[in-house]
Write a structure and sequence with these properties.
This is Glycosyltransferase. Keywords: Transferase. One of its GO terms (molecular function) is glycosyltransferase activity. One of its GO terms (biological process) is lipopolysaccharide biosynthetic process. This protein has about 400 residues and is of the alpha/beta class. The protein is built from 17 helices and 13 strands. A seven-stranded parallel sheet has the order 3-2-1-4-5-6-7. The model has no long low-confidence stretch (mean pLDDT about 90).
Length: about 400
């Protein structure tokens, strides 16, 4: 008798977040996740058909996935007006005679009714749990739509055990229908770039090796304002020797933070903000040139930059909030993200205590080796089989 878990699953994968034409050139965490599944699911036993929501129905704006027959807004409106009878049909997109999908995997909040089972990845509940961190425009409507969308999925995947509590509390998802699949890190992060390539990138951006590094979109939950305060509280000799390098585009409610960064630079502080970096190779080089990675986030569903830093051989200091201790598993120095003095102390330790630095580097590499996209893909396909067998 054949083992059902051994058969190839034909899955439609949402790749909207991996469309660089829609994301300004650089992929955020959702885009990295979608792209990684697209690349690694086939080796784990899935036939993957990528689909993307075309803004305004304009199929010319998507290239990673084939355009779905309706825009997300159109599909959502149809679902609201005719909730019991409307389902998204993708057979026409796949072509006449194509076998039907076994299921569809929505990799972000864009979840609509399909003519097959739907698995959805919900990364966190930030807009609902912390509306003060999000742009107010249409926030209530968007939150309501997300809650409704989450309940359309037959099963939910999330990146950490911490996130389960949030999804149950704020989305009303049945805990029995949630599986945890930790995210991974791409293999190339473990390969140190050549000194020549690294130094060329650093010189291009005016960086001196050994800096404190942060990577992430500038928005309130990333807590970069306190990171800047913590850096400015370091002794002048340490600030002179080590830059603070912030890599990330401005996001929600970031105007005040941007003004603070610019003011620090105008005062002659050793602060560099790279707001438009979109090249993955350059980002890899910038990680490799760091003396310490500092991730002070107030809230993360997983926290991919943490693992990228681990794999890059950079010692890490991170906040002790939400999912981050689960991801770090003791491989990073942890601090209270609301305490600027604790953050400053952690940065000082990683700059001056070689024994602690070396311990964190070794532990971080070991932790990163446990978090691969191959393993994430295998676990994701196991979820598909579970859904199809129930």
């Amino acid at each position: 008798m054949n083992n059902p878990a051994s058969r190839i699953v034909r899955v439609g994968l949402s790749t909207t977040t991996a469309e660089t034409a829609l994301t300004g050139g650089r992929l955020d965490g959702l885009g990295v996740y979608s792209r990684a599944l697209l690349e690694h699911l086939p080796q784990a036993g899935a036939e993957v058909l990528p689909f993307s929501f075309a803004p305004g129905g304009d199929a010319s704006r998507v290239s990673v996935g084939r355009a779905l027959p309706l825009s997300f807004r159109g599909a959502t409106l149809a679902d609201l007006l005719l909730p019991s009878s409307v389902h998204m049909h993708v057979s026409g997109v796949m072509g006449r005679g194509a076998p039907p999908l076994d299921l569809f995997h929505a990799t972000d909040y864009r979840i609509v009714r399909m003519d097959c089972p739907v698995v959805a990845t919900l990364h966190d509940a930030v807009p609902i749990a912390h509306p003060e961190w999000c742009t107010p425009r249409l926030r209530g409507l968007k939150n309501w739509l997300q809650i409704k969308a989450a309940r359309k999925a037959q099963h939910v995947i999330t990146g950490s055990h911490y996130s389960i509590r949030e999804l149950v509390e704020h989305f009303g998802v049945d805990e029995g229908k949630i599986s945890v699949v930790h995210h991974g890190v791409r293999p190339e992060w473990f390969d140190a770039p050549s000194a020549e390539a690294r130094d060329a990138t650093l010189a291009l951006h005016g960086l001196n090796p050994g800096y404190f590094l942060f990577v992430g979109t500038l928005q309130p939950r990333k807590n970069v304002g306190r990171l800047l305060e913590a850096y400015l509280a370091l002794p002048p000799v340490l600030r002179s020797a080590r830059q603070l390098v912030i890599v990330g585009a401005p996001g929600w409610l970031s105007d005040e933070l941007v003004a603070q960064i610019k003011a620090a630079k105008q005062r002659g502080e050793n602060v560099v903000w790279l707001s438009k970096l979109t090249d993955d190779a350059q980002l890899h080089h910038i990680y490799a040139g760091a003396g310490a990675f500092v991730f002070p986030s107030l809230h993360e569903g997983f926290g991919l930059p943490l693992v990228e830093a681990f794999a890059s051989g950079v010692p890490v200091a991170t906040s002790n909030a939400t999912s981050l201790p689960e991801v770090a598993q003791g491989a990073a120095l942890e601090f209270d993200p609301l305490s600027v003095p604790e953050m400053t102390a952690a940065m000082t330790t990683l700059a001056r205590d070689d024994a602690t630095r070396n311990r964190c580097i070794a532990a971080g590499r070991r932790r990163a080796l446990e978090l691969t996209w191959d393993e994430a893909a295998r676990r994701t396909v196991a979820v598909y089989h579970h859904v199809l067998s129930h």
